[in-house]
Amino acid sequence: MQSIAGRRLLPLLTALAVALALLVPSTAPARAAAGVSWDKPGPYRVTSKTQGDTTLYYPADIAASHARHPVIIWGNGTFAWPQIYDGLLRHWASQGFVVAAANTAWAGTGNEMLAGIDLLTKENATPGSPFRNRIDLAHIGATGHSQGGAGAINASLDKRITTTIPIQPGPLADAAKLHGPTLYLAGQSDVIVFPALVQSFYDKSAQVPAVYAELADATHFTTLGDGGGFRGVTTAWFRFQLMGDQRARSLFFGANCGICSGSTWLNVKRNAQVLQIPGHA
Question: Where does the PET hydrolase/cutinase-like domain start and stop, copy by copy (predicted)?
Fold first, then answer.
């Protein structure tokens, strides 16, 4: 539980971090072996709307699309809302995903995030909906920041979730029950959710392919706005796991994985299941 002082301080820190995120350029692009800059916008023009308890970000021409689009469900940090992460959520939608962000500042249980899947399942089957037969419900990723990162772990106990990215996740989650590939991301300079806490989740995830990495110099608020240095690596993971984009494979897998060396990603750990997955031949 957070202290009363912490509850009073966090909104002020969040507001300050949002302002800084809008002023400071993003760093640490994630590049695959093929030279793809995953932190750059994708080919889709993006629109968004609020529907019930969920804010949806998606390709603006989805109704005319010939593809089914995978889903990313999102959980906000404590006291935060989807608009605080607007640049990051729009970025994923520009890459062809439908992002369902929970309209809550208390996403820790994961239940509010799962409501986004329920909504899109209904829309996918509703005649006249722009999402009619355009949602790939077989490929759904869960991610979130801070309390929402714990929410992503908790939501992923639902068998509909196929992969998970907890970003600087809070403490109230059970990683031992995850059932799909998981990428744990920490910030080297995070003094709210210490890297050691994130690594403890990784240590309890031996039952699934799991990767742990710390973004150099990242604070707890680096994720706000457009996601900063977390934007590219999360995009690459979802492109591979949810779309089968082989250009992203060697960023995470193989003997010389892209995040395994250099000064951007630190203390990278990959469990035995990940080490069995090859990179590019």
Answer: 48-250
